[in-house]
Amino acid sequence: MKKRWMTGLVVLALAGTVALGPRVSGAATGQDNAAVQFGRLAVGEHGAVVSVDGHATRAGLEVLRAGGNAIDAAIAVGLALAVTHPQAGNLGGGGFMVIYLADEDRYTTLDFREMAPAVAHAEMYLGEDGRPVRGVNYVGWRAVGVPGTVAGFEKAHEWGRMDWADLVRPAQQLAADGFWVDPYLAGSFRRVAPTFQRYAGSAEAFLHPDGSPYAAGEKFVQPDLAWSLDQIATGGADAFYRGPIAERLVAAMEANDGLITAADLDNYRPVEREPVRGSYRGWDVISMGPPSSGGTTLVSMLNILENFDLEGADPTGAPLAHLMVESMRQAYMDRATHLGDADYHDVPVDWLVAKDRAVELAAAISPDTARKSADLGAAILTAPESPETTHYSVVDSFGNAVSTTYTIEAGFGSKVVAPGTGFLLNNEMGDFNEWPGMTDERGYVGTDPNLIAAGKRPLSSMTPTILARDGKPVALLGSPGGKTIINTVFRLVVNLVDFEMNLAQAVDAPRIHHQWMPDVVRLERAFPTGTADALMGMGHELGTGRIQGDAHCIWIYPDGARLAVADGRRSGSAAAY
User: Fold this and answer.
1) 389 is catalytic
2) With CB atoms counted within 10 Å of each terminal CB, which end of the chain scores lower, N or C?
3) CA angle at 169 for the pair 165 and 170, rounded to the nearest 5°
4) Which of 84, 389, 421, 531 is catalytic?
5) How many domains does the structure of the chain reveal?
6) pLDDT in tens, 399-423
């Protein structure tokens, strides 16, 4: 335990908490005159917001400055991202929130993951030869799960202070007035344009009338999305699940052999769930439980690594990388074996995150020799998740904290838009195990816990996490990246706890990934060449390095200051006041 952490956290604990307070209409508070910082790093004494997009970050910050709390701001950010970051921001997807409620001094989580339609079944994507039909569960109308985002945000609003319409209006105005396309979004539009051209609603929403994509510097206006957001502002989730938006969604499904019915939409409900909890060298880890695999897998890996003394270790050296990979190998094999929707399968979370089990697992790790994933998981072997998710974090002046990760799965989801709605639908059906019984070394997983079933929520790797001391939040962590998400958060925790990096250093440090199968280690390019050579000497197979994750995180200092850090790997915007 490091003395400087103890001192700061005792001060934070003694500061106490402030209640959520009554709902407010959006009038500015006395904090409105506080200096505002925007940039890749931002620090302030009242509140902080960080996300992948500057428009969304600004929307969240203005909600905080108007008297809203972190839950209000998280809703505003998520809705704005549906306008300005359509690769992952969404109305037609789903996700998870990990929340600290200061007035109740408790942590909770909100599951608004998508659900399989009522007609779904385990073999629905198999062809006559018994093998999966390529692409059907990733692109098009039959890849779509019942969306959860709008219902989830409305459920979260029960803990908010501001009027619902005031949280939707910033996004609605962005859609109606438009915004200037930046090079990153323009490149994404250019790559996906050929697919959008196949679907009338998508082409209308995201392409010029001649079928060409929007270029950097052009203004992008979305009238149909503005209409949908206006319906949501005035009618809430009912407008989406039972009202005029639902009517357009169902009509498009019926016209295109889609899966979702009016009953599927009407039956969708978000769920408040208990967090998965763990500890790592005296720090509290609060994360998301099933149907996310993130929290369980993260805590399991930390438990294993905790059995090794990392004093004096090189953060980018091969010995640490080896231990982390071996922890990942075990935890991801457990993920493939046991994790799924706990409403449909008995998930042994307590056993998976038990400290005594981790002691036994750590003892099986050699300090200098790689194990083989096929040997470790032989019992489930027979004969990748998309990076286009997004994460954002919010802390307010009341002490509330929200760590949110949500997605439409692959970049731009299923690529389909119901005509007249303006928003993309998810392709989360691809997150189920599509090939029952087939688990192989290429990465197919066909184990029972995550097979398709009507009403079931697909397994996710999303890992919104809060790191705490003495029960109070200190760091809000998370990232996109499919199956790499958990390992990105794992690396962040190790950087912060074991190496006492500041938050910017922890976010910038190079990351590593292994997911049991395929049995390949991937290092970001910033790792020293010697690390890769040493890992191969231990028997690890290395794959091509790539950017891993896009972590937008917040640190709460002992004096109460909030530091927001945007990950520089892609783009991002932090704000504080």
Assistant:
1) yes
2) N
3) 140
4) 389
5) 1
6) 999 999 999 988 899 999 999 999 9
